[in-house]
Amino acid sequence: MKFNNKHVIGKNVKIGNNVKIGDNTIIYDNVTILDDTVIADNCSIGEPLNAYYFEKKYENPKTIIGSGSLIRSYSIIYASNIIKNKLLTGHHVTIRENSQIGENCQVGSYSDIQGDCEIGDNCRMQSYVGVGKGSNIGNYVFLYPFVILTNDPTPPSETIFGVSIGDYSIITTSSVLLPGTQIGKNCLVSANSCVNGKYEEDSFISGNPAKLIGKLSKMPFFNEMKIRHYPWMNNFDRNMPWNIIGYKEWKKKND
Amino acid sequence: MKFNNKHVIGKNVKIGNNVKIGDNTIIYDNVTILDDTVIADNCSIGEPLNAYYFEKKYENPKTIIGSGSLIRSYSIIYASNIIKNKLLTGHHVTIRENSQIGENCQVGSYSDIQGDCEIGDNCRMQSYVGVGKGSNIGNYVFLYPFVILTNDPTPPSETIFGVSIGDYSIITTSSVLLPGTQIGKNCLVSANSCVNGKYEEDSFISGNPAKLIGKLSKMPFFNEMKIRHYPWMNNFDRNMPWNIIGYKEWKKKND
Amino acid sequence: MKFNNKHVIGKNVKIGNNVKIGDNTIIYDNVTILDDTVIADNCSIGEPLNAYYFEKKYENPKTIIGSGSLIRSYSIIYASNIIKNKLLTGHHVTIRENSQIGENCQVGSYSDIQGDCEIGDNCRMQSYVGVGKGSNIGNYVFLYPFVILTNDPTPPSETIFGVSIGDYSIITTSSVLLPGTQIGKNCLVSANSCVNGKYEEDSFISGNPAKLIGKLSKMPFFNEMKIRHYPWMNNFDRNMPWNIIGYKEWKKKND
User: Fold this and answer.
1) How many C-beta neighbours within 10 Å does residue A196 have?
2) Which partner from A66, B134, C97, C137 sits 20 to 30 angstroms from A228, CA to CA?
3) Given this model, what pLDDT does residue C43 score?
4) CA B207/CA B203 separation, integer angstroms
5) pLDDT band at residue A1, thresholds of 50, 70 and 90?
6) At residue C7, does pLDDT exceed 90?
7) Residue C73 has pLDDT above 90, yes or no
8) Interface touch C53/B74, C-beta < 8 Å
9) Strands, DSSP E only, in B37-147?
10) What is the average pLDDT across B27-47?
11) With 0-12 CB in 10 A as exposed, 13-18 as middle and 19+ as buried, what is C17?
């Protein structure tokens, strides 16, 4: 009952094989959607930049949505984004202009990626995640609900010090990363922390203001199997490339 | 000017008497909407589960929306939810699959109930409330804006330890309830707290990390009438079943 | 490709010159939209109050949207709001009834202004800002993401003690302002603070619970130019009335 072809398609839009587009969705000019992707109802893909409303000669920049993606309803992806294969979004998501998002990423409902961001492969952003302009996120990074990556060290100003987060790191719910914060690889930030500064690989960071508590791999975080949970890649593989073969085996093959 | 019958109705949809359905709203297969309910514009009721997009033989599970409900615009209620009478929602609400919601509940704008939740009667969730998968919420519970109920004790993992909250408890704004937290009846969590562990009836809980401060009923919280405010049921009755007759009288009748 | 005149316009709607209205947008009865304003797709302007759904003789109160405004898609502005010129909104914004908003204000995506608020000129509310009912916000005030202005001192109750914020003050990300909090002019609240009480002009406020740290203008906050950043008006002028001529010159002219 959906997919009644009641959507609107702009000029120079390239649509791959087996793509489904929902009702009341608009695909703007110069968007490319690769094979096997679903765009649900009430979405806007290639949402025009500000100039569209005011300049007669506005030309929408190119936008690419990778194959095998599922964009859920009421989501808005601005023009000029380059998104690799298998993006999965919740509802009411906003992705502002000029970001690059790697493959197999998830963006939860109500999340807002503010533009000029680089996000690696296999990242999971849950609901209500705010990724400030100019953020740099590695691969296999998890951001939990209400996490916010800020960027202005002296608000308000024109300075943007984006946050960077290394591969495999996890920022848990309601934590604030202050402007210019650098989180290394394999780190964990505990819930409701307020983090500033630079943290090395394998840090466990907690508090408001947050402090380095110690090496994450040495912390007594045990999972249901009663084994040390971190590095988590040994214990979690859903939708990860090491699914079935395990992280160690996969790592060996890929190094 | 709304209610122009410009909506879409699926198969095997049962619609009661005096139901209004807004424009651009979709009611999916196997949804039942009871009498006197209003579904505003741009909603999706019985939103199909993931398999809908990929499986040809997908059959939408049954969904029930109780009588006398008002679902405001841009809200999405997934298939398989069973919701009792008099649900009132804000705008842009998302209720994921497989939850049971009692009667006379309110869910504020941008709130996200993530699925597999049990929510009692007469609960009030305000704006931006995130109720994690597997949460268990009693009756007459208040959740204020940006409250989040989490569930994964070792993120990321497959373990879900849902939060539980007892009858009459109040979780105030921007507080995080960590996985497996158990809040008893008649408790109050102060704003911006980060709560872990198990708390008995009548606890006042505060801080990051949160601590038990003392018995809520002994705390010096006085209202405008200069009387002790908690238990709040003696002092607040808007839209509660003890409206007019008062809590004590109502309680006597119902015990 | 937008602006196909696929919108719905109510009775007694007054639309100025050079106004654009997007597809699937509804303009309800008794709305006035002044010149040069853009209302994007899927918006609702003059959203009717609760009584609309239940009373046959409901009459929508008057709503005014000033000139030169841009309301982005999926935004809802209730009837009875009076909004001056040059409002700029993000997507998925909600502005509830009976507020007054000054000129040249910005309201970011997913922000929720709950009604009965007074907001001055030149304010910037970023994404996910929750402005509680009865708030009173001066001019040139900045509210960063996930900031919430609360109002109920003994939740739940019928008492509303709105928050007030003086001119030029800045509340940074994820901070909670407790009911009745009064922030003077030229103050800064640091990220993830939980603020209660009354603060004089030029305060720097920080922590959970928040404390007065000292005079903001004496704090060692230096910007990229290595000069003291606060008062910020000397160092930031984007979209401000002192743009080009500078704050001091502008102030002299306007005093």
Assistant:
1) 15
2) B134
3) 96
4) 13
5) very low
6) no
7) yes
8) no
9) 38-39, 44-47, 63-65, 70-71, 76-78, 82-83, 88-89, 94-95, 100-101, 106-107, 112-113, 118-119, 124-125, 130-131, 136-137, 142-143
10) 97
11) exposed
Query: Residue C69 carries which side chain, given as an amino acid letter?
Result: S
Q: Any residues with CB less than 8 A from the CB of B94 and at least 6 apart, and which?
A: A90, A91, A92, A109, B75, B76, B111, B112, B113
* Interface confidence (ipTM) of the complex: 0.96
Q: Tell me the pLDDT of chain C averaged across its residues.
A: 96
DSSP structure class, residue B114: -
Binding partners of A (≥3 Cβ pairs within 8 A): B, C
Which of C144, C157, C161 has the most B C-beta neighbours within 10 Å, making it the best mutation to test the interface with B? Answer: C157
User: Which tokens sit at B102?
Assistant: 């009692």
B128 vs A128: CB contact, 8 Å cut-off? Answer: yes
Put simply, whether A150 touches C (Cβ < 8 Å) is yes
- Cβ of B1 within 8 Å of Cβ of C94? The answer is no
The fraction of chain C above a pLDDT of 90, given in percent, is: 93
For B222, the 3-state DSSP assignment is strand
> Cα distance from C60 to chain B (closest Cα, Å)?
12
Percent of chain A clearing pLDDT 90 (strictly above): 93
In chain C, the domains with their CATH numbers are 8-254 (2.160.10.10)
DSSP line for B180-209 = T-EE-TT-EE-TT-EE-SEE-TTEEEEETT
Residues 166-225 of B with CB under 8 A from A: 174, 176, 178, 192, 194, 208
Q: What is the pLDDT of residue B5?
A: 61
**Do A84 and A107 meet the contact criterion of CB atoms below 8 Å apart?**
no
Is pTM beyond 0.90? Reply is: yes
Torsion of CA C108, C114, C119, C124, to 10 degrees: -10
- Helices first, then strands: H and E counts in chain B: 1, 31
- Chain C residues in contact with A75 (beta carbon < 8 A): none
Return the H-helix or E-strand segment holding B86: none
Q: Do B225 and B242 touch, CB atoms closer than 8 A?
A: no
Give the angle subtended at the CA of B185 by the CAs of B168 and B94, to the nearest 5°: 55
The answer to whether the Cβ–Cβ distance between A157 and C229 falls below 8 Å is yes
- Which chain A residues are closer than 8 Å to C144 by Cβ? 150, 155
Tell me how far apart the alpha carbons of residues B9 and B22 are, in angstroms, rounded to a whole number: 11
A38 contacts: CB under 8 Å, gap ≥ 6: A19, A20, A22, A69, A70, A71, B53
Q: What is the mean pLDDT of residues B52-61?
A: 92
pLDDT the model gives residue B12:
97
Distance of CA B169 to the CA centre of its chain: 13
- Looking from the CA of C111 toward its CB, the CA atoms found within 13 Å total 27
The DSSP line for chain C is ----S--EE-TT-EE-TT-EE-TT-EE-TTEEE-TT-EE-TT-EEEEPPGGGGT-TT--PPPEEE-TT-EE-TT-EEETT-EE-S--EE-SS-EE-SS-EE-TT-EE-TT-EE-SS-EE-SS-EE-TT-EE-TT-EE-SS-EE-TT-EE---SSSSSS-----EE-TT-EE-TT-EE-TT-EE-TT-EE-TT-EE-SEE-TTEEEEETTEEEEEEGGGS--B-TTSSB--SGGGT--TTSTTTTT-HHHHHHHH-
How far is C41 from C71, CA to CA, in rounded Å?
9
